[in-house]
Amino acid sequence: MTGDTADAYDASPYVPAGADLRTLAGAAACCRGCPLYRAATQTVFGEGDADARVMLVGEQPGDQEDRQGRPFVGPAGHVLERALTEAGIGAGRTYVTNAVKHFKFTVTGAGKRRIHKPPSLREVSACKPWLAAEMRVVRPRLIVALGATAGKALLGPSFRVSERRGVPVPFPGDAPGPWRQAMGDAEAYLVATIHPSAVLRAEDRDAMYAGLLSDLRSAAGLLT
Predict the structure, then answer these.
(1) SS3 for 159?
(2) What CA–CA distance (Å, rounded) separates 129 from 143?
């Protein structure tokens, strides 16, 4: 059964067992695990060193990420890069990815502007095998969940950013899904925070950015 079947939302058949990041990225380009591939320009896989200590997990690619084929290269990515630098987490220490690997959007206006649309729980669930495969290779010491979608993918549907942000929790711990198998005997912490795009949408951007930075500094403290 493949992703072209109406009720089949599962990327598992497309994920090669035991593959390295390069092979996984190549295989992901052909993923048909859910219908999102049909409208997206391309798969946007994770990026970074296989030995990275920190894995940053966002929601899904945005417009610029979909066009360029790289995660966090748009405006939200610039906010994240600045905050990581100020928090003392260098880019070379991170692996950056998303819970969902294809851009979901609606088209509005005469210019046909593409507007982000949140992925459904089925679409997030379908993409979990890719995130688990990335986690198996990287085995990070710290996972940062950027926003509600990433948090729910990793900690379950009851997750709320407002209740959990900035607080380290053992991972996988009691987290649902395939995460314990992916992490094996490795122990890590997970820290949740807002998605950097929330800074761009906020009326008080300075206050929102300060909150993001505070959460990332809390996360950075776990690496010492």
Answers:
(1) coil
(2) 17
Which one-letter amino acid corresponds to residue 2?
A: T
Distance between CA atoms of residues 223 and 219, nearest Å:
8
Phi/psi of residue 58, each to 5°? -100, -165
The arrangement of secondary structure in 12-223, i.e. its CATH architecture, is 3-Layer(aba) Sandwich (3.40)
Burial class of residue 94, CB neighbours in 10 A (0-12, 13-18, 19+):
buried
Listed by start position, the domains of the chain span 12-223
Question: What pLDDT score was predicted for residue 93?
Answer: 80
In this structure, which amino acid lies at residue 130? W
Q: How many CB atoms lie within 10 A of CB 177?
A: 17
Partnered with residue 106 across adjacent β-strands are 115
Residues paired with residue 143 on neighbouring β-strands, in sequence order:
55, 190
pLDDT of residue 7: 57
Report the distance separating Cα 224 and Cα 200, nearest Å: 30
Task: Give residue 5's pLDDT.
Answer: 44
Report pLDDT for 16.
98
Rounded to two decimals, what is the model's pTM? 0.94
Question: Can you read off the two tokens belonging to residue 28?
Answer: 């992901």
Residue 51 has what DSSP assignment? Answer: T
Number of H helices and E strands in the chain, helices first, is: 9, 8
Nearest to 102 by CA among 156, 31, 51: 31
Answer whether 11's CB lies under 8 Å from 130's CB: yes
